[in-house]
Amino acid sequence: MIIYVSGKLSAPTEEEKAANVLAAIDVGLELHLKGHIPYIPHLNVLMEPCAEKRQIEVTYADYLTWDLAILERCDALFLCSRSPGADLEHGMAKTWGLPVFYNLADVPDGNLKLPK
């Protein structure tokens, strides 16, 4: 399955924001090990300095639009933590009938064959 990793990104400090990104990456890696393809929208944080450098405004609404467009194409959602954005993604996943996982133990093993 392609599993969308949803969770808090925004934080009062850069250190807390980085911790949120790392938490999502950790979940993505565990999903990978279980034989799934993780999509980690937190990695879009890397777009921010590039957009600023090019003086391109990318808004919160832009990120949500992109995220929901990808989520709609995923097979499931994994909810790492709650936030306004994660709650929106969670609600949309439920509306679209996607399975939602809250614990790694509940995610079935996938059939993605990892290259040797």
Overview of the structural elements:
Helix 3 (60-71) runs parallel beside helix 4 (84-95). The chain has a single domain (2-104), classed as 3-Layer(aba) Sandwich (Rossmann fold). With 116 residues, it is an alpha/beta fold. It contains four helices and four strands, in the order βαβααβαβ. Helix 4 (84-95) links the parallel strand 3 (76-79) and strand 4. The protein is globular and about 45 Å long. The chain has helices at residues 14-33, 47-53, 60-71, 84-95, and strands at residues 2-6, 37-39, 76-79, 100-101. The mean pLDDT is 94. Strands 2-1-3-4 form a four-stranded parallel sheet.
Quick structural gist:
This protein is an alpha/beta fold. It has helices spanning 14-33, 47-53, 60-71, 84-95, and strands spanning 2-6, 37-39, 76-79, 100-101.
- Number of separate structural domains: 1
Mean pLDDT: 94
The ordered string of helix (H) and strand (E) elements is EHEHHEHE
- Could you tell me the radius of gyration in angstroms? 14 Å
CATH architecture: 3-Layer(aba) Sandwich
Number of helices: 4
Distance between the termini: 20 Å
Q: Can you tell me the CATH topology? A: Rossmann fold
Largest sheet: 4 strands, parallel
The CATH homologous superfamily corresponds to Hypothetical protein PA1492
Helix residue percentage: 40-55%
The outline comes out as globular
Structural class, by secondary structure, is alpha/beta
- Which strand-content bin applies to the residues? 5-15%
Which spans of ≥5 residues are poorly predicted at pLDDT below 50?
none
The overall strand count is 4
Strand order of the largest sheet: 2-1-3-4
